[in-house]
Amino acid sequence: MILVSGQCQSDQQSLLLQLKNSLIFNSTLSLRLVQWNQSNDCCTWSGVDCDMAGRVIGLDLSNESISGGVDNSTELFSLRHLRRLNLASNLFDEAQNIPSRLANLTNLTYLNLSKAGFVGQIPIEISSLKRLVTLDLSCYQDAGLQLENPNLKILVQNFTELSELYLDGVNISSHGNEWGQALSSSLPNLQVLSLSNCYLSGPIHSSLAGLQSLSVIRLDGNDLSSPVPEFFPDFPGLTILSLADSGLYGKLPENIFKVSTLETLDLSSNDLLHGSLPNFPQNNSLRTLVLRNTNLSGTLPDSIGNLKSLSKLDLVGCNFTGPLPISMASLTQLQYACGLVIQQFHWSTSDFSGLSNPITICGLVIKQL
């Protein structure tokens, strides 16, 4: 029997219908499950992707208001051809652990269980999913997910293909040398590292410098208690660096502002971090610069006008002094500017009229000299 491309195999359709019947979900809020109907080819169902042979390889049940649990949904773990599974943003019971039977889905390359209500220890069985490219287990802080046994090192030890790791809000409770070396020794292809509010401590280990493919680093809300590493500007493709409220201290390396690929830099709420702004080179990619509540000081350089892509600038609580550079009037993409101090007669709020609209200006102080 030759299958028409995309025509769902009968056993696959049967498994999906059984899965639907086993799940508890709010039919008035559901956008996908509620539409699944035996009279239609399951490969056309919302949230379902099939391969050329009609086997289900992708399942997106995010934001489906699913409650109860999935541990008893044997049909889900029988979809052995699944490559992508998304159960994010559901309402699983507070006592629901991440099902260890996910290990049955050995073809998974994408697994997203973020903010779905799961609690407890992340099961060691997840570490057997060796083909994962993206893993997102992020949760709301203090929601109850933790990495103790297995710890981070054991969880990621087999993830040699992983490029994106999101564990925001998971209680990892690991020292700098432990989590740093765990990542650097097992994840050579890592591009996105997002470990905000994970109860990590510092200092940030130098072994992270070996992860040269990193483009996104988010470590907000941890107690890193260290200076900003000198090697951070050396990542050739770095686009996002977010280290807000992470106990950073010492002088900020000026080279961090000169990374040509960097689009977002957030160092806010590190009140022991000091330094000044450099002369910004042309062709800078910065879109978001947030230095709120740091101890950075000095004057704003005239070269800030080189930040042609800048849309958000937050300097509230900093110690910058001196005149506001005229060159800022050329920042036509600026939509949000906070903590600015105007100290020249020829500057007034009307000088912002050439900037993009709408623009939010907050914390503006005008000092007539």
From TrEMBL:
Residues 11-51 form the Leucine-rich repeat-containing N-terminal plant-type domain. Coiled coil: none annotated. The keyword Cell inner membrane does not apply. One of its GO terms (cellular component) is membrane. Keywords: Glycoprotein, Leucine-rich repeat, Membrane, Receptor, Repeat, Signal, Transmembrane, Transmembrane helix. Gene3D superfamilies: Ribonuclease Inhibitor (3.80.10.10). It comes from the Eukaryota. It is found in: Membrane. It is a single-pass type I membrane protein. It holds the Pfam family LRRNT_2. The keyword Repeat applies. This is Leucine-rich repeat-containing N-terminal plant-type domain-containing protein. InterPro entries: Leu-rich_rpt (IPR001611), LRR_dom_sf (IPR032675), LRR_N_plant-typ (IPR013210), RLP23-like (IPR046956).
